[in-house]
Amino acid sequence: TRTSRPQRLLQAVCINAVRGNPDSVIAAIDHFCQNQEWAMNVGDEKGAILDSVVMETSPSTVLELGTYCGYSAVRIMRLLPPATRFITLEMNPDYAAVARQVIQHAGLQDKVCLVEGKSADLIPKMADMFGIRTFDFVFFDHWKDCYLPDIRLLEDCGLLDQGSVVLYLDYVRSSLRFSSRFYRSHLEYTRVLDGLERSEYLGHRDAQRD
Ligand code: SAM
After folding, report:
1. By C-alpha distance, which of 132, 141, 80 is closest to 106?
2. Which residue of 26, 48, 80, 180 has the fewest CB atoms within a 10 Å radius of its CB?
3. Looking at residue 73, what is its pLDDT?
4. Measured between alpha carbons, how far is residue 105 from residues 75, 117, 118, 144 in Å?
5. Does ligand 1 have an atom closer than 6 angstroms to the CB of 143?
6. Which value does ipTM take for this structure?
7. List of the chain residues with pLDDT < 50
8. Is 189 in the pocket of ligand 1 (CB under 6 A)?
9. What SS3 class is residue 182?
10. Pairing relationship of beta strands 193-201 and 178-186 according to DSSP bridges
11. What was the pLDDT predicted at 210?
12. For residue 47, which atom of ligand 1 is closest to its CA?
């Protein structure tokens, strides 16, 4: 029977990464993608920018949109203190199943809530499902046509607080209520130009009036 790319990526993790060691899981995935098959993980170069934004934000609540095989989830979680809430959403059940095993191999299964479903359906349920009031950090790495609807949805659901940081895998100027900075980078595992945008929420329009 033929395996899928995520299954082969998981196999490479199981063979090459040390159990319970997130850095070695990240290294095994990067090695697989550089030497065997390209895959749409954020990768090592943009991953380093993601690391620095996570560290400077030191969030206590984090939302990731687009888990895929769990590469960026492992990357982010390895930097978070134990009490941080980390929620990641993935609509493809096959990818979610692989991500659970990758995260388990890294020993981080107790730090994560991986929810299967579409962001548009799940974002409005974050308060009820997890008792989340606002997210300090949101990482956008799902399909790009969901970026603008989902940032508006997060705002409408009151899930952004003044100072919340949003990181996009693209150039996005969503509204004047964010202060933004673009980081140039390359498409994962290639030299194709790409980048990330870090946006800080300045507060709701109505709130800014008073
Ligand atoms: N963040 C991952 C990493 O760096 O390891 C890579 C994520 S990959 C680029 C995008 C993923 O988002 C895919 O697995 C896709 O199934 C998922 N996705 C796309 N649109 C989505 C949506 N609206 N809700 C939930 N998941 C979505």
Report:
1. 80
2. 48
3. 98
4. 13, 23, 25, 29
5. yes
6. 0.99
7. 209-210
8. no
9. strand
10. antiparallel
11. 43
12. 4
At 119 the three-state DSSP class reads helix
**Residue 94, both tokens:** 């096959």
| 95 pocket-lining for ligand 1 (C-beta < 6 Å) | yes
Only one residue has tokens 């705002």, namely: 155
d(C-alpha 67, C-alpha 27), whole Å: 18
138 lines ligand 1 (CB under 6 A): no
- Ligand 1, residue 70: give the atom nearest the CA: 5
Measured CA angle at 61 (ends 56, 63), to 5 deg: 95
Ligand 1: atom nearest CA of 95 is 14
Asked whether 98 lines ligand 1 (CB < 6 A), one says no
HSE-up of residue 27 (Cα within 13 Å, Cβ side): 9
pLDDT for 108-129, tens place per residue? 999 999 999 999 999 999 999 9
Q: Write down the pLDDT at residue 86.
A: 98
User: Which pLDDT score is estimated for 110?
Assistant: 96
**Length of the chain, please?**
210
- DSSP-derived pairing of the beta strands 193-201 and 160-168: antiparallel
**Angle in degrees, 0-180, between the axes of helices 22-35 and 5-16, rounded to the nearest 10:** 130
The whole-number pLDDT of residue 104 equals 98
94, burial (CB in 10 Å: exposed 0-12, middle 13-18, buried 19+): exposed
Q: What is d(CA 166, CA 78) in angstroms, rounded to the nearest whole number? A: 19
Does any ligand 1 atom lie closer than 6 A to the CB of residue 119?
Answer: yes
pTM of the model: 0.94
